[in-house]
């Protein structure tokens, strides 16, 4: 206590010293004393209230314990009375045996009377149930089926209890049994059909799948109830337990197996790359299906089914069975490489079962191997025997020919009337990158088993051939664009496949980097690396340019309306431009980063440049201040429209700067006092330093009230006094040319402006 007191005193002294650091604070000593006294009183009051609350709680608890003790004594007394009465009533219960038998007989008769309605309405109920099944109203059909089965089971149970030959209880089950069993079998067929198409059903009509699961859950509850009653009474109705839940899982297992077995679309005779295509289709099917299971199907099943893990194992087992069948076939050397690469590397990688969206629920490393080690060793041994002779006959021309064939196949896909496939993120793509790098990967894996130097040589060869291939790829993309421009109606999916071509560039880049990290010990970039990167960038950039050209071909008519008399009187050209751009960019959302960002920024720049070109072409000359004000306000409004649109499209930080150029020009037009034009033009030049003299001349000409002397004065002053730049800017006016004006036109405009000024 003494130590605590000393600490309190020391703290108080320190606090008082803090309060009285200056002489003028001595006047407030009394005020400080009263404040501290109030704080002390408040703390003491809270302590007293807390202690009082604790005491009240203890007092209440003791009162409740005393009351509970009295209640326990009363219960003990009541239990003693009940035990005494029960011992006295044993003889009375034995004398009621006849009454018990009468009750059982009454129960049987009551059950028969209760089900008389069903006995006579069996044909009608059966017909209604059959119709509901045919109409796919499964829940309603099952409800009626349960009513029939319940009536049958109740009567049969009563008959079983009395072991009687009552006509009613015999007749009802005899008439009902085959019809009810037939309805049950028919309903089961419908359930199994829905489950066999579960992957399609869950996308189109998940409620149907939920209905099937609910019916099976109902039947499981009835099965459990009947099994429990059998343990108590020895009776169980015919056809029970149905075990539909077990049958459901067997049907799903068969569905998954059929799905995997159906992936083989071609044979070796029809396509040398049949196995690569088969494995790629299998990979896509499995990955897409499991994503559907995780995102959609899990919601249709009860949580205790552990649906996702169950399907994960079903697909694994089905793939394992299929791969084992493929391994038992007479595979060629390159097919062995494809199969082993897929089994040992691709299957558990992020491209398939190890995908982040799949592996978050299941640990792919806990799965059993797809192929037993003995089968893997046998395939490797078979490959090594044939590899020596094949490896030395493998030349550059083989790779070139193979790449050319892959490109020709991809070009045929570009002419399809259906959109290209999308990856798991929704970006359009073709199978070309996967096929090309599957071949590279296979040969590099083989080379890595021979020698590290040989592996490096093979990698260099692959990269060199890749560069030549990309040059050809670029040429084919340009040809594809030129053919489309001859008839813009063909191909129908030109935009979508051009997007896929752009996305393929990013896939090529990622795959090349992956190969280099995996198979190369060299850290420094080579000439092939730079050439490949340059070609990929050019292909993607040109593809984006082609798509923007497509957009601006549709916008050409509306762009020509800008800054015309029609525009000034109320044209909807900018509204149409914004709607068209947004519509195109709904498709352009399928472009991968960073190309989509660059393309959006370029689209904004081109729209702004075309708008400013319309100004510089002097399609209109404002006749008075009202027209200038109306035109300027319209330009500011349309600049805001562009800004809103491209912010929504995520054009980046340049949106305000680019759209601001239109608003800045509008401010030049909007100015009512011509004597202040120099200041407004100076502000414009400071924001956009790439603006040239002819641009300023054009702006003043469109304004319509600047005399020749005033224009010369403004230009001369700006030339003599270089305007300081307000910050980093993006060139806008650099690519905008101003059409030349004849001397006659200039003289006429000057005379009109002078007359207006004099007036």
From TrEMBL:
Belongs to the SEC6 family. The keyword Nuclease does not apply. GO terms for biological process: exocyst localization; exocytosis; protein transport. Component of the exocyst complex involved in the docking of exocytic vesicles with fusion sites on the plasma membrane. The exocyst complex is composed of EXOC1, EXOC2, EXOC3, EXOC4, EXOC5, EXOC6, EXOC7 and EXOC8. Interacts with EXOC3L1. Interacts with BIRC6/bruce. Interacts with MYRIP. Interacts with SLC6A9. Keywords: Acetylation, Cell projection, Cytoplasm, Exocytosis, Golgi apparatus, Protein transport, Transport. GO terms for cellular component: exocyst; Golgi apparatus; growth cone; membrane; midbody; perinuclear region of cytoplasm. One of its GO terms (molecular function) is SNARE binding. This is Exocyst complex component 3. It is found in: Cell projection, Growth cone; Cytoplasm, Perinuclear region; Golgi apparatus; Midbody.
